[in-house]
Design a protein that fits this description.
The chain is of the alpha/beta class and 445 residues long. It folds into three domains: 224 residues, D-Maltodextrin-Binding Protein, domain 2; 86 residues, no CATH class; 104 residues, Periplasmic binding protein-like II (D-Maltodextrin-Binding Protein, domain 2, 3-Layer(aba) Sandwich). The chain is built from 16 helices and twelve strands. The strands form three sheets. Strands 1, 2, 3, 4, 11 and 12 form a six-stranded mixed beta sheet that branches. It is globular, with a radius of gyration of 22 Å. The relative contact order is 0.18. It comes from Microbacterium arabinogalactanolyticum. Keywords: Cell membrane, Lipoprotein, Membrane, Palmitate, Signal. InterPro entries: Bact_solute-bd_prot1, SBP.
């Protein structure tokens, strides 16, 4: 909590510092006083672990950008205290030129005043972006501040060997999913003669809002939402009939059916990943980024990837991914724009999907590109179809993090304490969300 407060204070200082700067690059936030130099090296920050395969994939992608355009760029990977370090640079009026960060950070970064507005007419390849990617790049004021370049959407990973052992098929609806989960829990699918398997892996921890993050797949498939609205007018929505139905169904998997792995309310993703790959749980709703790991640890022949089972409303699943953010005050605005344009070009999208361990591009956001153009693995097509047909980004509001955290606290409590009343807890949650939306200045009145 201390770190978060320190970061918030630094961001406040940084925002004031930027606001006090009477000029910035043309085409961006803040005026026209920064002298431009198209030969200036673009400083690119990527939110990932230094020395990781992800960093290597990004550097490879940026090197391809340099060869294709002639601009120079330098990549810095930062994971720990990313926001604090960015705020410090903002306070020094010396932001990096480009930041590669999660799409969910757009609202926060834009409200801090550290991004410049992007004119899509200058980003020629933006005309081929998916509709949901274009929407995810807009802030509450309707203007574009980010260009999503890589997407990921969830699908259902399921133990195919367990299905075969029990004579079952992969579920296509929630009812079928619950039936398979019960069979995986009660009928010894691994044949070891022990009662040690469960139907569904769930990261139900409050840490970083994981319980809400995971539950969103089911909430949206039921036609519900955490908040509803658009622009700067939003209302809480967790007491809607659809939200109550989704929450009750999800909670009953734990409290009535008993098909969720033990300890789920205290687990974030690392132990939940282990629950699936070690044979404790037989189903897991997650993204394509887990396949390289599961292929190695579990074996590609032991599980399959299928569309997430259809809920009461549809098959909506969580969509996420990386976004190119063009920072305010750059001395090389043309280079910034060229980077954003190249990163979503067919050439870059295909090149970024190459590899085996880490990818600069998980799923393409350019509609002219198919994942099958690069990867000879039909499982990736399942994920791409999920993104294009059912992908649902979190709403772009000034700060999504507190909304996710508040809802995670409630979902976690319902999973951990089966005596709690679902409707009562969701009513309390809506009250908290109302206060948060009011604080952010976007409550519909």
């Amino acid at each position: 909590m201390h770190t978060r407060m320190k970061a918030a204070a630094l961001i406040g200082i940084a925002t004031l510092a930027l606001a006090g700067c009477s000029s910035a690059a043309p085409g961006g936030a803040g005026g026209t006083g920064v002298k431009q130099d198209e030969k200036a090296t673009l400083e690119i920050w990527t939110r990932t672990t230094p020395g990781s395969p992800s960093e290597a994939a990004t550097k490879r992608q940026v090197e391809a950008f340099e060869k294709a355009t002639g601009y120079k760029a330098e990549v810095t990977a930062i994971f720990d205290d990313f926001e604090i370090k960015l705020a410090q640079r903002a306070g020094q009026k010396d932001l990096p030129d480009i930041v590669l960060n999660d799409v969910s950070q757009l609202g926060t970064m834009q409200s801090q005043g550290i991004l410049r507005e992007i004119d899509l007419k200058d980003v020629k390849n933006s005309k081929d972006l998916t509709p949901q990617a274009l929407k995810a790049g807009k802030a509450v004021d309707g203007k574009t501040y980010g260009i999503p370049y890589s997407a990921q959407a969830n699908a259902l990973l399921i133990r195919s060997d367990w299905l075969k052992n029990l004579g079952l098929e992969a579920p296509k609806t929630w009812d079928e999913m619950e039936q398979v989960a019960k069979a995986f829990t009660e009928n010894d699918p691994d044949g070891n003669g022990k009662n040690d398997t469960y139907g569904l892996a769930v990261p139900g921890s409050t840490k970083r809002g994981y319980a809400s993050w995971y539950f969103s797949n089911f909430l949206w498939a039921a036609g519900g939402d955490f908040i509803t609205g658009s622009g700067d007018k939003w209302l809480p929505a967790m007491t809607s009939d659809a939200a109550v139905k989704a929450t009750t169904w999800f909670r009953d998997l734990q409290c009535k059916a008993g098909v969720v792995q033990p300890g789920a309310p205290s687990m974030d993703t690392p132990p939940t990943n282990e629950a699936f790959e070690s044979g404790i749980a037989g189903m897991y709703v997650t993204g394509p980024y887990m396949m390289p790991r599961f292929d190695k640890v579990l074996g590609a022949d032991k599980y399959e990837v299928v569309p997430a089972p259809k809920g009461p409303k549809d098959s909506a699943v969580l969509a996420e991914g990386g976004t190119v953010y063009l920072m305010a005050g750059s001395e090389n605005v043309k280079g910034q724009t060229a980077f954003a344009d190249w990163y979503v070009s067919p050439e870059a999208q295909k090149f970024g999907m190459e590899g085996t361990d880490a990818f600069a591009i998980q799923l393409p956001v350019n509609e002219k590109v198919k994942v099958s153009d690069v990867r000879d693995d039909a499982r990736w097509t399942v994920f791409q179809d999920a993104y294009q047909k059912s992908g649902h980004y979190a709403p772009t509001i000034p700060s999504w993090t507190p909304v996710r955290q508040m809802s995670a606290d409630t979902i976690n409590a319902l999973l951990a304490d089966c005596s709690l009343d679902v409707k009562d807890e969701l009513t309390k949650l809506d009250g908290k969300l109302t206060a948060e939306l009011l604080t952010q200045g976007i409550l519909k009145q």
